[in-house]
Design goal:
It is built from 6 helices and 4 strands, in the order ααβααβαβαβ. It has helices spanning 3-9, 25-35, 54-71, 78-91, 110-130, 147-150; strands at residues 47-52, 94-101, 133-138, 156-166. Strands 1-2-4-3 form a 4-stranded antiparallel β-sheet, sandwiched between helices. The radius of gyration is 18 Å and the shape is globular. With 188 residues, it is of the alpha+beta class. The protein has a single domain, classed as NADH Oxidase, CATH 3.40.109.10.
């Protein structure tokens, strides 16, 4: 697919829109290789990922539901949030945990490393469009409470989850964007 068309076709696709079908290991490996090509200041490559499938995906869903309950113990919508989260996990073929490891070897501002992880995620997202995979990046507030579940070190943190499932992006209309000319100032 032409790169411009690929970029224009990238959309958030929610688990309720996913089609049946397996995302195989070779495809996931290629998506992650593409993520690894993201720009990174001083080659810190702060991104790392955990792939949750099958029983691991169910365990992740339960851990997320427990974190929601702990964070929202006095919220009447906690039960709804838990059920919605478990349903997203169930409908997804796999869930990609998105993580960042802060570099201690070089002095890089944290925002640059967060941006590098986001660019790695964008590479995955564009690759998903090409592979007929729908995805949705969610960054819930409760990820900090799940630090031990993820087995993270002090210099690591979760930046969210990418829910993934089969999907044909050609079924989506291109969304209207603001005219780019309104966002650019040419200085010559």
């Amino acid at each position: 697919m032409d790169i411009n068309k690929l970029i224009a076709s990238r959309r958030t696709v929610y688990p309720s829109q996913f089609k049946k079908g397996e995302i195989d290991k070779a495809t996931l490996d290629q998506l992650l290789e593409n993520a690894n090509m993201a720009p990174t200041h001083k080659m810190t490559q702060p991104w790392f990922f955990k792939i949750y499938k099958n029983k691991a995906k169910a365990r992740l869903g339960q851990a997320m539901a427990q974190a929601i309950e702990a964070q929202n113990s006095d919220d009447t919508r906690a039960d709804f949030k838990q059920k919605k989260t478990l349903e997203k996990c169930r409908l997804s073929n796999c869930i990609l945990g998105i993580f960042m490891k802060r570099s201690t070897a070089v002095s890089i501002p944290e925002w640059e490393e967060v941006a590098a992880v986001a660019m790695a995620v964008q590479n995955i997202w564009l690759s998903c469009v090409d592979q007929k995979i729908g995805c949705y990046w969610s960054s819930p507030q409760y990820t900090a409470q799940m630090h031990s579940f993820f087995d993270l070190n002090a210099d690591e943190r979760c930046l969210g989850f990418m829910y993934m499932g089969k999907f044909d992006h050609t079924t989506l209309a291109v969304k209207e964007r603001m005219d780019m000319a309104l966002k650019v100032e040419w200085l010559v």
